Amino acid sequence: MNNQVLSAVLAEYALKRENNEREEARREDEIREKHPGLYALVQRRHDMILKAVRAGLSGAPADPEEEMAAYNAQIAAALKDAGYPADYLAPVCDCALCRDTGYVYENNRRVPCQCLKKACQEAAQQSDSRQEEQSFSAFDLSRFPDEPLPGTDVTQRDYMAIVRDKCLTYAKNVPAGPVKTLLLHGGSGLGKTYLLNCVSREAQSRGVDALFVTAYDLLMALKTAYFSRTGDTAREYFDATLLLIDDLGMEPLMEGVTVEQIYNLLNSRMSRGLYTVITSNLNRTQLKEKYTERVSSRLLDTRSAMAIPFLGKDIRLIR
């Protein structure tokens, strides 16, 4: 598998697991509040499992399968009586084989799940197609609705023409332009990653040292560098003339590490006059909440940065 594609897909899997865990917690909270008797039964099953685990660790024989089956049957029946599906409190996942981790075990070996192989294959095909098509000359404004954006008399198509021109100007000015950091932010399907690749292609056509990385891959490199106490594993991200970071906000954060390392990276690049382009589905408020004022201020500093909001309808849903 292509490492870059694999990392991007695994980042999506991580986000999916986070969302599923939140949904599991929401369902459990709902049962606890509305059906305390049913929740008490769930807790007794949980206590039974812990007791069996402790017994197993101490060397005592433990075979809770029959008791577990009985609890499962009681909980399923109680859920149905309360108007819920029998599996309402089961783990939430898209793939029952790997539980959205992307990996299963075969003969005591950890191997990619079929769902991961399929997701990577589809992502690779999409990536190959994008790389072939994505350039400023191929940017097709007709894909955007010729309808006014809410509350304005400017159409989404005309607005994207302005955004395209700003991105082209930025790309042509690297490495001599006054705008060092370009933030492309907004909802999904509005053309952010497309224009990120356009900037990369334009800059590289003029011999600029450009490096593309997903936010997930960047996070992994920064974590490795942090724990190894050396900057070698992440040095290329600090030194590239033009660094392009896709999907900031999709990567899982590590408390006390990720935010600080992202700040150090951005601050170092800005102080050295290097160029950075970032795409994110987060808005300004969300960026500040997730990455703190120190990081967001680097992205939104109008003296050396330009933030462009992407507005309108998801063109993938229109087409």
Short description:
This protein is of the alpha/beta class and 319 residues long. The protein has helices spanning 3-34, 36-57, 65-81, 114-133, 156-173, 192-205, 215-228, 235-239, 258-271, 284-300, 315-318; strands at residues 103-106, 109-112, 181-186, 210-214, 242-248, 275-280, 305-310. The protein is built from eleven helices and seven strands.
> What is the average per-residue confidence, as pLDDT, rounded to a whole number?
85
In CATH terms, the superfamily of the largest domain is P-loop containing nucleotide triphosphate hydrolases
CATH fold call of the largest domain: Rossmann fold
Structural shape: elongated
Biggest β-sheet: strands ordered side by side in the sheet: 4-5-6-3-7
The computed structural class is alpha/beta
Which regions are unreliable across 5 or more consecutive residues at pLDDT < 50? none
What is the CATH level 1 assignment of the largest domain? Alpha Beta
Q: What separation lies between the terminal Cα atoms?
A: 30 Å
Fraction of helical residues: 55-70%
Rg over C-alpha atoms, rounded to the nearest angstrom? 24 Å
Write down the secondary-structure element order. Answer: HHHEEHHEHEHHEHEHEH
CATH architecture of the largest domain: 3-Layer(aba) Sandwich
Domain module count: 2
Main β sheet profile: 5 strands, parallel
Strand percentage lies at: 5-15%
Number of strands: 7
Given the structure, what is the number of helices? 11
